[in-house]
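Lecture notes, unit on protein representations.

Consider one protein chain, 167 amino acids long.
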Amino acid sequence: PWMVQPSTCDYENKTIALMFYFTQLLQLNVKLGEIKTKSVKNMSAVDFSTAYNKGTVTVASVNSKLVLNLSVFLEAVEDQIHSLQETVTTLDEEQCCQLIAAFHWSHRLLRVGQHKLFVAGSREMEVSEELTKLLSLHINWVKKRLLPLLTRLLKHTKKKTTFATAL
């Protein structure tokens, strides 16, 4: 009943499984999309930033560059992730695990950005200080953990492509 001979493990399947997991994470990630509410008071930080950058919303009480440029930052990160997905053909297990762990920071940032921007119950449209602190923290984690890894992997693939075309 027990296997007498050791089985050979196909290590490429692990890499394929990790890549599949990585692409599923990308597909399950909440995308920047349509603004969910028309009421400015009920907008999330991401929705407000998106509306502000489209020119559909202007609120004098929001003077935080972090909030105003949040959607631009998230779109830039998403673009880098997609370009990595399109250009990288192979990743070893360590790189893939690092990438998945780092990718969670952008997901967390997006989740934090989906909280309401303005303090509930305030007569004036007061921006939530707690939210801006959390956004700042998560943006810094994305800058520290995800962006350098994406840049390194993209540069590595460009070097490989340049070398292959030179041959």
